[in-house]
Each structure stands twice: as C-alpha cells, then as structure tokens.
Amino acid sequence: MDTSLRTALGDKTARPLAKQLEMETVGDLLRHYPRRYIAHNSVTHSSEREDQRFRPGEHVTLLGKVDGVAGRRMRQRRGHVLEVSVSVGGNHFTCTFFNQPYRERDLQPGTTALFSGDLKRYRNSWQLVAPEFIVLGDGDSGLLPGLIPIYPAKRKLRSWVIMMAVRQVLDLLDDPEDPLPDTLRAAHGLASLGDALRRVHLPDTWDEQEDARRRLVWDEAFALQLAMAGRRASATTRPAPACPRREDGLAAAFDARLPFTLTGAQQRVGESIADALAGEEPLNRLLQGDVGSGKTMVALRAMLQVVDAGRQAVLLAPTEVLAAQHARSLRAMLGPLGRAGELDADTEQATRVTLLTGSLGAKARREALLDAQSGAAGIVVGTHAVIQQSVGFADLGLVVVDEQHRFGVHQRDELRSRPGTTTPHVLVMTATPIPRTVALTMYGDLDTSVLDELPKGRQPIATTAVPAGVKPRWLERAWERVHEEVAAGHQVYVVCPRIGEEGGEPGESWPEPAKDDLLDPEAPTDEFEETLRKLRPPEEEEPEEEARPPLAVTEVGPMLAEGPLAGLRLEILHGRMPTDEKDAVMRAFSDGTVDVLVATTVIEVGVDVPNATMMIIMDADRFGVSQLHQLRGRVGRGSAPSSCLLVTEAVGGSPALERLERLAATPDGFEVSRIDLEVRDEGDVLGAQQSGRRSGLHMLSVLKHGDLVAEARDEARSVVAGDPTLAHHPGLAGLVRSVVGDDEAAFLDRL
Ligand code: ADP
Ligand code: MG
Q: Closest Cα to residue 571, out of 332, 579, 584?
C-alpha cells in the first residue's frame, strides 16, 4: 500500500492522479472508493433515481445507449456539429460535439458507452457538450466488472481513468498485507483486505461489494476505537490531582442555598462525579442530558468541589459569546459565593469566576491571566482558543468542556497533555444529547453519564412549524398570540438568524464584526463546514442558489415594533451590541419590563427567564435542528404552558419543512440529534474529527453502522488492555495511523 503510484503505474498514469486527487501511493488510490456503481446490463434501472439530482453545471458520468446521431454544418457559424442522442434510463441526453465529425463512427445507434462531462440545460433538455466517452461494445464488456464503479472524479480525471488505474494496480500487485489477524477476521466474519479491495472496486455483484464494504467499514471503526481505547489508556498514565469533598466548604454552602432540590439524576450523577474527583484516577466523563436537565448545575457543583480542594477549574466554551454567558450564569448561580474580593462576598469561602476571552482589553486580560496564575480565580471561563494558548494555572484540577453543537473536538487533550506530574480531571458536556452509537464513536474514550430526568414542574413546549410562505394567515395568527401571551402577563422571544447590516458599531466585547454575519452570527468560525465541503465528492457539490438573506434582528425588530407588535414593549439583543447595552436589555427582560425580545442566538445559553412562555423562530430552516432544540429550551422553564413556533418559507414536501415538522413532533433531545445527524450527512461528521487533515474515514457512518461500532469497540478495548501501545500488533498500529492520522495516533508513542 505504500508503494508509490509512479513505481506501480508509470509516470504518465500516476501524474494526473497526483495532480487532480493528490494521490501518491497505491494505498491512496485503493482507498479512493467508488461513490456508486452502475450495473451495465440494466441501464434503465440505474439512473431514473439519479435524474432527480441532476443540476446544470454538474460534472457527471453516465451510462447510456445511443439512439440517434445527426451531423450537420452550422448555419450561423462555420463548422460542423454532431448531435448524439443518448438514453439514460428513461431520460434523454444530447451529446454535442463541435468539429469532430469522426466521432460518428464510434457512436452509432445501439452503442452503449460511458459519457463524462458537464451538464447543461438547453431548450428543456439535458446536454453534455463534448463529453469524453468510452464505448462499451460487446467485445469490451468482458473487460468490465459486473458493476461499473463510479468514482468521485474531476473534469481532468475521468471516473473510468481511475477505474483503469485501480484495475492495473490490483492486477499487478500482490495483495496487501492484512492488518487484521486471521483469528479476528474469522471471529467477525470479515473478508481479507485484498478481497475487500478488489470487490469494492470491481465487484461482479451487489453482494460482493456489500461484503467488501463491511470489511472496509470495520477497518475504519476498529481503527477509531483502537485510537479511543489508546487515548483512554494514555489519559490515565498520570494521576489526577485528588479533590476530596469537604463538609464545610463552598460546595456545601452552595448546596445549602439552592432554591430547589436536585433531581434524582443530578444527585446520582453528581455523586459519581464527586467520588471520582476525590481520587487520583483521572475523571474522563461525558455528561449527557437534554436541554434544561441541569448539566451546568452538575458541572458547577463539580467545580466547587475542586475549588474546595484548593485547586482550580476551567470551563471551555466554543465561542466568546458563549463563554461570556457561561461566566455570567455561573456568577448568577453562585451569588455572593462567587464574589471573592468584592464587598458583598460571602465570607472567606467565596471564590472568583474569571472570564478570559480574546476580546478583553489589554489590562483586563492581564488581570485575568494573573487571577488564573495566582490561583485567585477558582473558576476560569474562556474560549478554547485563548485558554490553550496562553494561560498558566496555579493548580488546575478540572477541565469542563462545553461542546455545544460540535461533535468530536479535541481541545480537551491540550490542557490535559501539558507537562507536569498530574493531569486534570475532564468533564465534557454536550449541548443536546447524542445517540449512544455516536457517543461510542466520537467519545469512545470517555465514560458516559446521562441526566435522564428534567427538574420538576418543567412544562412541555408545544412546537409548531409555521409555513409562512404558503399560509401567511398562520403568521398573522402568531403575532396575535404574542399579544395574548403578553396580555396574560408573559414574555416572548423572537429569534432571527442574522444580526443585520445596521447592527451598530461593534462594542467593546466584539472588536471585529462577525466575518460572516449570514447564518448564525454567534456561531464560531468553524472548520467543520469547511471539512464537510472538502470531503464531499466534487460531483455532488450543489450550485449556489440565489436566496434572500436570512431575516435580521435589526430589521425584524423595528418592523414588528411598528407593525404587528405595536404597543408592546420590545427590545433587540445581539452579540454585536456593547456589553453594557446587552446586559441592560437582558436585565430588563429578566425584570419583566420588556415584553418581547427580538434576538439572535445569543439567548441560546445562560438566559433563564421562567416568565417567558413563547418563542417564535424566524427563518427556522436556517438553523440546525439541534440548535433549534437548544433554543426552544429557553421557554418552558416556568409553571405556565409554553410554545415555540418555527416560522419558515420552506414549502410543503421540502426537506427543510419536513425537518422542522419532525423536530416539532418530538420533545426528545436524543431523537433530535438523530434527525440532525441524518441531515448533516454524518458520515462526514466523523471527518470533522480530523480537523481538516486528510481523513482516513471514508465509509463509516455512525448512524448506519452502530452495531458494528459497538462490536469494534469491545474488540479494541480487549486488544488495548493487553497491548496498550500496540507494540505487538504492528499491523494494527499501522491501520490506526492510516485511518486517524499521526496526531490522533500520538498515544502510540506516549505511553
Ligand atoms: P442544561 O445545561 O442541562 O441545559 P442547566 O444546568 O442550564 O441545564 O439548567 C437549566 C435551568 O434549570 C437553570 O436555570 C438551572 O438553575 C435550573 N435547574 C437546574 N437544576 C434544577 C433542579 N433540580 N430543579 C429546578 N431547577 C433546576
Ligand atoms: Mg446549559
């Protein structure tokens, strides 16, 4: 697999592979799997379905049969045009060749051929202008496998060129050495690597390629799980700082002041975390729970135990806005217990919550750094980026990571792997719960605790999708309902996906305007989307659609105030407002002197106004479903019934509306994240783990392959238990490196 393609295939064939698809080795080529197959004896069935997805401008490879050919001189211009009509399934395509009359010889009616080119829409029919093609005459079909592989290809590197190269490699080279021991393969009924590669590329039957895929998916799942098991092992080679409980400490004082009783789940999970923190074996815990289940509360109590032990805790958030909100809500929860050094601090027990983000002024930043370094701050809240780079801690005992909507980010390693004799405890919170199989895959190195109980008195949130484009009357009714809620003494959120052009001058806490204020202005700039784009095969790239920009707070706010919500006390809130203005608006809303808050996703966390009973989300289709779920969790916190309206212009039958309707139909966060993964094309979600590096994950889907993932995990744990660095399994070590990359595989050298 490491043989260079130049050696194997010669320079001429290897060069375009390197240039177009960055393939250097035989392994690179053989791991470039077909995206789909065409059964060449069943043209009809193969493409009907595909037709729905054709888009002008798309680069496609089609198997078709010529049913007419006509050449003529052009009238307007000098030259010859040859029009070949090709049927693909039930559809007709016209292939047009200019000044190549000789093509007619090869493309007589009845000829079957593969065509490859850019799709155009011309006079109501599909056209391929001067496509490349190969004829699959009767004589040649012996050369072809039963199923013709269609590869993610490029304009300058046709799918069949890749196929030929693959065939050559498979014919020429001996089978690669199989990294999986025979016993393991036998136990799980897996094909050999050589067979799997041959059959995934050149299968004769659908069964063959399915067998092959199962083996190759297994490799990916197994490699990931070996890496997870290895990380787990290496995370516990150093002891963690023990943080025993104190009866008379801050944690106890905090509990004594709690205005409510903890849920059974909070108590149970809290106990188990507290026990773990008290010991020297590092806590490695994923804390799951639906929105509002009280995860933050559990995390805070854990942090207080650490502070009681004279150490520090840090809470990492993915964005500045979220970090600021976490700091604010932790301070609010702590009250006087969190105001050490201030006048109304509660005795000497009080600690300090220090916020550390990139946009702090130089002086504030220096002070915050000093707080962390000296130990004056018991709790430091900040963004991943800032804390990792520059902060020294007096005695870091616990890292809490708020993963928000990101699956599989590895920042937690950074703080953990700093040099020292100890390694901090780690607690990871997900914003919305994720299904077990996803947790196994993305967080296989962590133990999981689930808060499966909501605090008493939580009201169900009646969610409705409002297709405003088709049913404008529904939207009018929505605004009437806002009046009714307010008349009943309640408050309402209106959420928009964008801040807007006139969002005011950036405030102190937001030195640069968001780079891209379209779509979720508060979201972190994220490699995730970027990775998705890179991983998606070029043929599937969708052309940009001309759409109106998403609705903006600064536009919708005034429009409502002067229109349907005239007479109500309405304010706007977004991340680009100066901090003091934001605080003032939030305070007014909390105090009940504002009826309607028109806001961006800034309200996503840390906003807790039990009297707010209604949320209207504009352009709801512009948000991810997990995020919508998180947002609607801002209502239903008091004793009155609550509702959430998802307003969209998406039309009936569209995937966007369907997604919203599915979200509306379920209150269950686990179900929501399942929907989210489905629409995210989550096979690629795994790619995000590779943070942009070339991923060795091609086929694994955490939704489709749940059982296999669980199987692979058990196997991986037992292998790693006996051989933590895989020193006695060089084949497996190689597999891990090739699938997860060197960084991820660092544990192999670390132990
Ligand atoms: P999550 O982070 O899981 O979404 P939070 O920890 O933010 O949930 O809690 C949501 C709200 O519920 C907060 O206002 C918190 O103070 C409150 N809360 C937490 N635990 C309880 C409880 N046992 N009883 C009542 N309210 C609670
Ligand atoms: Mg929370």
A: 584
- CB 649 within 8 Å of CB 468: yes
In DSSP terms, 373 is beta-bridged to none
Pocket test for ligand 1, best of 269, 290, 297, 301 (most atoms within 8 A of CB): 297
- Cβ(556) – ligand 1 distance below 6 Å: no
Q: Give 218-236 pLDDT, tens digit per residue.
A: 999 999 889 888 888 877 7
- How confident is the model at residue 526, as a pLDDT? 33
Is residue 687 within 8 Å of 697, Cβ to Cβ? Answer: yes
Q: What is the DSSP letter of 252?
A: H
Helical H segments across 279-347, by residue range? 295-308, 320-334
Q: What are 271's two structure tokens?
A: 């106990």
Q: Which residue has the tokens 């292939």?
A: 95
Q: Are the C-beta atoms of residues 747 and 227 closer than 8 Å to each other?
A: yes
Q: Is the CB of 266 under 6 A from ligand 1?
A: yes
pTM value is 0.72
The per-residue pLDDT for range 568-626, each reduced to its tens digit, is 999 999 988 887 888 899 889 999 999 999 999 888 766 778 899 999 999 999 988 88
- Helix, strand, coil percentages for the chain (3-state, nearest 5): 40, 20, 40
CA of residue 41 to ligand 1 center, whole Å: 61
Instruction: Measure the CA angle with vertex 229, ends 223 and 230; round to 5°.
Output: 85
Exposure string for 566-576, b = 16+ CB within 10 A, e = fewer: eebbbbbbbbb
Q: Is the CB of 634 under 6 A from ligand 1?
A: no
Neighbours of ion ligand 2 (CB under 5 A): 296
Segment 246-305, tens digit of pLDDT: 999 999 999 999 999 999 999 999 999 999 999 999 999 999 998 889 999 999 999 999
Q: What is the pLDDT of residue 142?
A: 54
